[in-house]
Design goal:
Blueprint: E1 2-6, H1 10-22, E2 26-30, H2 41-44, E3 54-57, E4 65-68, H3 70-81, H4 89-118, H5 127-146, H6 159-164, H7 166-169, H8 182-192, H9 195-202, H10 215-222, H11 226-236
Helix pairs in contact: 1-3, 1-9, 4-5
């Protein structure tokens, strides 16, 4: 059994998709990020970066294995199951390239854009939003070129698709128009109809935010420093 520390966001969906596609038994453990669950010492022992998703693999010999950071989790699970990860060295190299691209480029740019679109105060002005809409657009262009001659990022459906897809699923709410990225739009729809993907996106949907964050939730989510994280962890212990 895998303990899956999760909250229904695009970053959480990445790992949920893989777990559902693999059919691995898992126990979903909600991490209420607006309430500060990510700062609990027991969670930070699993995820030192105080971010979900994270897993603990109990189906191993010896002590359970914790894994944090979405790219590392997906590589670990795909390798464990022997699926959605190429066997040959060049294919694995390409997989690693696209995982790193997602966690270093597409994900952070989309996440920052989401912040400025959905959560930043009016006093922030337009600079941040415009900066990240351009970067998100650039990343969509990277995917568009990649999809010119293939159905999936590596040719066959893989963890490279699963990790990148959630931040494209929500392109419209982020203010992007996929009409100018027809290859990406077709790829998005190709994955969206998969039953495992639909189950993953629905996971914990009752936990989703129904309105804007409160002032206290904003502080928890967006105003942390090293010192404040240490204080939060102390209060949670």
């Amino acid at each position: 059994m895998i303990d899956f520390y999760y909250w229904p966001t695009p970053n959480g969906w990445k790992v949920a998709i893989l777990l559902e596609e693999l059919g691995l038994p898992y126990n979903m453990v909600p991490v209420a990020i607006g309430k500060g669950d990510q700062f609990k010492p027991e969670f930070m022992a699993i995820s030192p970066n105080n971010r979900m998703p994270a897993i603990v693999d109990n189906d191993v010999e010896g002590d359970p294995v914790p894994v944090f950071e979405s790219g590392a989790i997906m590589w670990y699970l795909a390798e464990k199951a022997g699926r959605f990860l190429p066997d040959d060295p060049l294919g694995r190299k390409e997989t690693m390239e696209w995982l790193f691209w997602q966690v270093g480029n597409q994900g952070p740019m989309a996440g920052q854009l989401s912040h400025f679109v959905n959560y930043a105060p009016e006093s922030a002005g337009d600079y941040g939003r415009e900066r990240y809409i351009r970067e998100y657009d650039r990343c969509l262009g990277v995917l568009e070129r990649r999809m010119e001659d293939r159905d999936f990022i590596l040719g066959d459906y893989s963890i490279a698709d699963m990790i990148a897809w959630p931040w494209v699923l929500i392109a419209k709410p982020l203010g992007a128009d996929l009409a100018k990225f027809p290859n990406v739009a077709a790829w998005r729809n190709r994955i969206k109809v998969r039953p495992a993907v639909q189950r993953a996106v629905d996971l914990g949907k009752e936990l989703r935010r129904s309105g804007p964050p409160t002032a206290e939730e904003r502080k928890v989510l967006y105003e942390q420093t090293a010192e404040s994280v240490a204080r939060m962890a102390e209060r949670q212990s």
